[in-house]
Amino acid sequence: MIGKISLNKKLAALAILLGLIGILAGSPNESSAGKIDTNQLALEIANQSNIIKPTDLAKSMIDGSNTFRMVDLRNESDFTAGNIEGSENFPVAQINKSDLRRNEKILLYSNSEIETAQAWMLLKSKNYKSVYMLKGGWTGWQREVLGIAEGQTAASGSLFGSKTADETAVAPAPSDGIKLPPSMPAKSGKKKKEGC
Amino acid sequence: MIAPLFKFGYFGDEFSLIIAVLIGIGFGFFLERAGFGSSTKLAAQFYFYDMTVLKVMFTAIVTAMVGLLYFGWLGILDLTLVSVNQTYLVSQIVGGLILGVGFVIGGYCPGTSVVACATGKKDAMVFVLGVLFGIFVFGELYSYIFEPIMDLSAMGRVLLPDVLHLSYGLVVFLVVVMAIGAFILAEYVEKKLVLKKGK
């Protein structure tokens, strides 16, 4: 029976079938399913190559070599109260709906390192290629770069970390003597023209 | 591994050029095998004697579209990173009409002219010279004339599911149905015209 149907008709039927299943399949962009390469993840965790030190980040921001897309996982009020300049706010529950791209270098931070690590695992399982975590999170940044002890508010004297802070104020001396410029140059997005 | 491989840095610029050459050779080979190295066959499309162009193009669209949908769905491909040419609605309608006129007059489109060149067709070689001259003039005048005009109708990355507010899968299905409808119509028209010619 099937042998009598021409190849063209078979292919047409296949295309219709795949199209029909496609309706049910839903969006190819919003799949919440993930898959992980556990060996590769284990290696990254063992080498700690997914952890960035606050001082290293600060240095790269100063010399303009920072290529991270920085993601603040805290809630909105914490974010507006003070954040790392240039970072974006995606509270962890909304990370699935963020516009982060899988080939971007992403740096996560939060108040809680556990939360950051969970978000890291979540993104890695969704095939995000380069995801990093800031050691110590927001408190680590405050302590090591802004020189603010725990408990103090960010607005008390920071010019670098907090957008609410006075830009002209002098920052407390960072623990390892990094001088921070009052304003960072905006990251210029390199965009290649592409097409056929 | 997840595609697009280049965007994820699995290989660099140099290796991507090698891949481009390989894909280009494959593309050209299959265009030639489909008969697209002949201006008479291509021009016949516009007289509806031979609807091969329409069939090949729609087949390619459906194949690629279904492939992208399922690869995206399976997580092998990140569709948001697949390059989509920007939409310039008015410019593209005008440009499409100009290209169409050139296609009817010359018997080739830019890709098929190169294919025909490779098989030694002289008309195609002249056509390619014309294409290169056009590219040169367009390129030289781009920032003075064409860019300001194009910017008037720049719409960025536009996808049918977003414009129509339909799900991605439904759009895929509708395009498949449209393609098969076009195939049936094309075969019907071909038969009618061949009968009319008394063959």
Can you describe what's shown?
The complex is a heterodimer of chains A (about 200) and B (about 200). Chain A has about 200 residues and is of the alpha/beta class. Chain A is built from six helices and five strands, in the order H-H-E-H-E-H-E-E-H-E-H. In chain A, strand 4, helix 5 and strand 5 form a beta-alpha-beta unit. The longest helix of chain A has 19 residues. Chain A is elongated and about 80 Å long. About 15% of the residues of chain A have low confidence. Chain B is mostly helical and about 200 residues long. In chain B, strands 1-2 form a two-stranded antiparallel sheet. In chain B, helix 1 packs across helix 5 and helix 5 runs antiparallel to helix 6. Chain B folds into two domains: about 110 residues, no CATH class; about 70 residues, no CATH class. The model of chain B has no long low-confidence stretch (mean pLDDT about 90). Chain B contains eight helices and two strands. The chains are: A alpha/beta (about 200), B mainly alpha (about 200). At the A-B interface, helix 1 of A face helix 3 and helix 8 of B.
